[in-house]
Design goal:
Chain lengths: 263, 293
């Protein structure tokens, strides 16, 4: 369970560029919740994910994950509980290292690292199997450098890495936004499968309203650093893009862009 | 020509010793992606400590170990300056290097301390070049083997990931600050070891011994990469840096034979490195596509 209480984040505090990115966000995720997050540019979608991941300290509020107060923990320590996939496909993997080396790094997330071998033969066999389940032909390329893979393949590998050690929380930050529509669909499918298979609790930011409706059991909409709409269950299933657009307008959000509606 | 052939074994011996430094530069510049300038100071620290400990009556192994530990400490200081105090990488190294100049003088008590191969059991010496080459080859092989094992370990992989992509590393639970510190400790320990060998080879430790070491190390790494490419396994890439250092010293010997005053050696080194580092950009201006990558 993730409990976010009164979270405030102000960028460039005390300067002329001061911007309140999170303005007192309260959010509770139950175990197994798959929540999609939508909102306009600067609404605070990615900011809330980064706050939970610990990219920088927050100004106020608390973040409690499965009973652990992680508000003050550095990013690398929170990684023990959290799996992440970024918008930029280059960001989630080490390009100059092999696929299996990347997976081996991820398999040790949250463990102390010593002088034992960085990867074992048993692990290698397991990785081959798990890569095969992605259905991208990567199982025969264990020793290829990740930098040789396409953006979609890299996101798929990053997804696998995020779930190798079952995380208490999976954060997907517009992880299909940089991909072509066909690849984006495939990566979303893989995400859905991984979340279902491991029964993960997940937060997925997306720019695409249709995706936000089609995936997950709950949807939240953000505007100006606050959650303005939170819908789940049957009500969410019956949502239409037009409903969301109306909500956007009610919030005084006139910057709905084409990519959020079309695709 | 005869005198060049005469100088060749000496160049190979020097190249092998500086090759150890080249490996250390390869580790910081290429693996950790950290432009570490500490080596200009820690090279001399290694030499100074090794010589002084030997003069105090310890054997060469104890002395080298002390030198390595001193170098590791220097690397740790640079690491702390960068990771704790958030000072940029290059400046962190320059600060440590500057401070080490005083430290090195303090260790030696004066600017130069001689150690004679006649009175002390040294591992290498320019008086016995063939023996020195054999010893150096063995030492280099052992170092490459140990480093290959280390960078294949869990912590070694974490250091490589940190050098490649810090965002990814942190997301996988890797303490990137710690990895940078360990990387600098390993690299500067290695540099100090090279400094300790070099002092034995020369028969003295000199406070100016490390000046420009970073450029020579970088030249060696780049020469290795230009000739052999970068698509090799980790052990080979380290070995190619050593070969690069040997080639560097052979080229220096040739240039000296051709009549270049030794005063201009450092200028030549700087120009060589600048040209090699600039090759991709120069090719770009000339409209030539790079054959690599």
């Amino acid at each position: 369970m993730l409990e976010i209480k009164n979270l405030v984040k102000i960028f460039n505090k005390g300067t002329i560029n001061e911007r309140v990115a999170l303005n007192g966000v309260n959010l509770t995720l139950n175990d197994g919740d798959f929540v999609t997050v939508i909102g306009g540019n600067g609404a605070g979608k990615s900011t809330i994910l980064n706050a939970v991941a610990g990219v920088w300290p927050v100004d106020e509020g608390s973040i409690v994950l499965n009973g652990h107060d992680i508000t003050g923990l550095p990013e690398y320590k929170r990684a023990k509980y959290i799996g992440r996939v970024f918008q930029d496909p280059m960001m989630g993997t080490a390009a100059t290292m092999q696929i299996e080396e990347n997976l081996a790094l991820a398999a040790r997330r949250g463990q102390s690292r010593g002088l034992k071998r960085g990867i074992t033969a048993v692990e290698r066999a397991g990785f081959r199997e798990q890569l095969a389940s992605l259905d991208l032909g990567l199982e025969d390329r264990l020793t290829s450098k990740v930098g040789l893979l396409s953006g979609g393949q890299r996101q798929a590998v990053t997804l696998l890495m995020a779930s190798l050690k079952k995380p208490d929380l999976l954060l997907l930050d517009e992880h299909t936004a940089a991909l072509d529509p066909k690849t984006a669909k495939k990566v979303l499918e893989i995400s859905e499968n991984i979340i279902k298979e491991h029964n993960l609790t997940a937060l997925m930011v997306t720019h695409n309203m249709k995706d936000a409706i089609a995936h997950g059991n709950r949807l939240i909409m953000m505007s100006e650093g606050k959650i303005i709409y939170d819908v789940s269950g049957e009500e969410k299933k019956n949502l239409q893009v037009s409903d969301l657009l109306q909500k956007f307008e009610e919030a005084g959000n006139d910057e709905v862009n084409d990519s959020m509606v079309l695709s | 020509m005869i005198s060049l052939l005469h100088a060749l074994p000496g160049s190979v011996a020097q190249g092998l010793i500086w090759g150890i430094l080249a490996i250390s530069v390869f580790l910081t510049f290429k693996v950790l992606d950290y432009a570490d300038m500490t080596v200009d100071g820690s090279f001399c620290t290694g030499g100074a400590t090794t010589v002084m400990v030997m003069l105090s009556g310890q054997n060469v192994y104890v002395a080298l170990l002390c030198g390595v530990l001193a170098g590791m400490l220097a690397g740790y200081v640079t690491g702390l300056l960068h990771t704790m105090l958030k000072i940029p990488p290059i400046l962190s190294g320059i600060l440590t290097q500057l401070g080490l100049y005083s430290v090195n003088l303090a260790i030696m008590g004066k600017s130069n301390q001689a150690i004679s191969v006649d009175q002390y059991a040294l591992l290498v010496s320019l008086r016995f070049i063939n023996y020195s080459i054999l010893m150096s080859v063995i030492i280099v092989a052992v170092i490459i083997f140990i480093l290959y094992q280390f960078f294949g370990s869990e912590i070694g992989s974490a250091i490589r990931a940190t050098g490649c992509n810090q965002n990814m590393a942190r997301a996988q639970g890797i303490n990137t600050g710690r990895c940078i510190r360990i990387g600098l400790v390993v690299s500067n320990g290695l540099t100090a070891f090279a400094g300790g060998l070099y002092a034995q080879y020369q028969g003295n430790a000199d406070v100016n011994a490390g000046r420009g070491a970073i450029v020579i190390g970088l030249a060696a790494v780049i020469i290795g990469e230009v000739i052999f490419g970068t698509r090799h396994n980790f052990a080979l890439r380290m070995a190619f840096s050593v070969v690069g250092a040997i080639i560097y010293y052979i080229v220096i010997a040739i240039v000296l034979q051709l009549g270049l005053p030794s005063t201009f050696l450092k200028l030549l080194s700087a120009v060589l490195v600048a040209v090699f580092l600039g090759i991709p950009a120069i090719q770009g201006y000339l409209g030539i596509k790079s054959s690599k990558n």
